[in-house]
Amino acid sequence: MQRLDHHYIDGRWVASRGTRWLPVSDPYREQLIAEVTAGDPADVDDAVAAARRALPAWQALSGAERGAYLDAFADALTRRREALIRLSCTNNGKVLPEAGIDLDDAIACYRYYADQARALDARQGQPVALEMEGIEARCYHDPAGVVGLITPWNFPLVTSAWKLAPALAAGCTAVLKPSEVTPLPEQALAEIAAEIDLPAGVLNLLHGDGEGIGAPLTAHRDVDKVSFTGSNRVGEAVMRAASEGSRGVSLELGGKSPVLVLDDADPEQAADWIMAGIYFNAGQICSATSRLIVDASLADTVYAALASRIDALHLGDPLDERSDMGPLTSARQREAVQAYLAVAEQEGLTAVRDARHRTLPEQGYFLAPTLYRDVPTTSRLWREEIFGPVLCGRSAANEAEAVELANDSDFGLAATVISGDSDRAKRVGRQLRAGSIWYNSEQLVPPQTGWGGFKRSGIGRELGPWGLSAYLEVKHIIGPQ
Ligand code: NAD
Question: Which residues form the active site (predicted)?
Fold first, then answer.
């Protein structure tokens, strides 16, 4: 069994000072596949000091030079693609095609920010138009400094790429803490840093949990900015910690995103997109479209189309090419979702397919894909993020009611609009309060478009030029011409 007992600090593998050990499991085989150190605050001190020492030289490189390292990350991930796909299947329970999508998204992100790093050189020192005689001003973009990057377990290589690639492109040095639940895929990032001779201290990777590494990292006064992806509960703790010393934060948090099916939609086509929005990654997606708002005239047809697709889903070994849906990533997550299913029973929700509608594989942390209809807006299942394969639907009498229901949420990460008229879908999309709106498509996340939420879904944006800006400080130099 693998023992992740070393961090990557200052370009070397260094033994953790942590004394606690955490199990890392294969959620299909229900087997321990590794043990990971919980970490120790002293490890954080060492990593932050190494990142601080590395900052001046890394910042002094041109964007083009930093871009070459990001291309090298993309090349190295491409070489490891097959091995990392299998690792994501065994550590996360992802089915093969989904793990492949993750890898390709991560690689595209490193490539995109390699280009952004190169483009940054031309943006430095641009003159600013002034209305003052004899005075000139020029605009520069400096790195934010030493950054702490904390990622969750549902998309390890993707969420870390969205932080690490723009941070390094901007000239920041980083301390990255993967989730203790899925530390294996991101361990590869430190191996790649060593392989491509990334200057020591530019990327430091610390294994551990919230107590051993996460909280000390966010509280560390020498960390200039923290970028966090995870739950609202922890995100709020991160924000409180960063308020000490008035340090910056970016937060990518939870969601309860709607999918709207308008009265002119094709119900069969709509059902395909609805399925992809909720049962991908066994529903463990921050942007899961977990609230279905369907025009009343189409409701029965859409529910019937969904029921037949749910029945056709093959649940099984993530490494088996026939599997459409794997287990949940941990026993703990399965318990969390089961608690919501118990609430659904207490509330007497109407199930189109309940959690007991099929026999589950004999092993693995599986849950049946579940669909409720006519769910009251007061139900906890309608309002709270469940983070599992549970879809809640209700009907709307018309477009205006659908928009009102969609926006009646504490969250605002994403939404999907399905209509036979794409102009109408786009117009409805403009009325929704969320960061990413898809119309007549699956959830596409190109690295060129921004990612992040309104309301409680977070603060700031990742991806696109906004993802780079999150790691840059704007500086103006002003004086006589
Ligand atoms: P989590 O909040 O439990 O953990 C996230 C990370 O924070 C982990 O690395 C964890 O070790 C660390 N952590 C725990 N306590 C900490 C503390 N006190 N200080 C600092 N770090 C600490 O979340 P999770 O269960 O890993 O992930 C699921 C959540 O992530 C869901 O709510 C989901 O919506 C959200 N998520 C959001 C996005 C997005 O882009 N908006 C993407 C993926 C996941």
Answer: 252
